Every structure is written in structure tokens, then in C-alpha cells.
Predict the structure.
Amino acid sequence: MPETYVLDSYAVLTLLQGEQAGKRILDLLRQAQAGKVRLLMTWINVGEILYIVERRRGKGEAYQALALLEASPIDIVPVDKELALRAASVKATYPMAYADAFVVALAMVENAKVVTGDPEFHKVSGMVDIEWLP
């Protein structure tokens, strides 16, 4: 079974904004396309990306970002009861953004590695494996 990664909004935004760290995300997307790795996100985190893009560059760019995400090899996971309860527990235990708690919860459920550069995830580095972006 291929290695599984959960992308947070920070990771995807590095790619959308053309940042250096986005090269790693592009590499992961290519690997996922070839079936070598599995990439996951929740719809909560997709929504987070979209509101950030819309604030910075407008609704049209947000729709383009959504189209790119939906066409990509990223599996966008719906939030069910189990995932919501796990995220709630993470949020109750650690002072982090609610959307980030879904990243951690999904990584726990899927035994996956989180890909991020967001320093907020240092708080949960003992709970899940993290690949730190520069």
C-alpha cells in the first residue's frame, strides 16, 4: 500500500502561491498521479483554502483553485461523525485552529503523515508524523 499523506491548507497554498515549498507539493501530486503515494484532505480544509484565496485574489480565483483541487489526485474526504468527533477531541486538547484539528484527525484515522509548514502543528508532533515544509 502506498504511503499516505494529509495535506493542510498551508501546504496547498504554497503551491497555489508559487512558493518554493510548493515544489514538494507538486512532487507529491506527481507521485499520487503515478499511484506511488496517496494524498488526502478534508472538505473543511478545502473550504479554508478557498476563503483564503477569495480574500486575497477574488471569487474567480477561488473557483479556479477549487477546480484544480477537484481535478487533482488528492482524495477530498467528506467529514463524517467519526472524523468530526476526533477533530473535536484534538481541538479540546490542543490550542490549534479547528480546521487544523481535522488534518490531525484524518491523519490519525488513516495512519498518514501530515504535510505542513504551519508552526501550529508543533503542538501535535507527538500524535502524528509530520513532514515539515521549509
About this structure: The mean pLDDT is 97. The two ends are 27 Å apart (CA to CA).
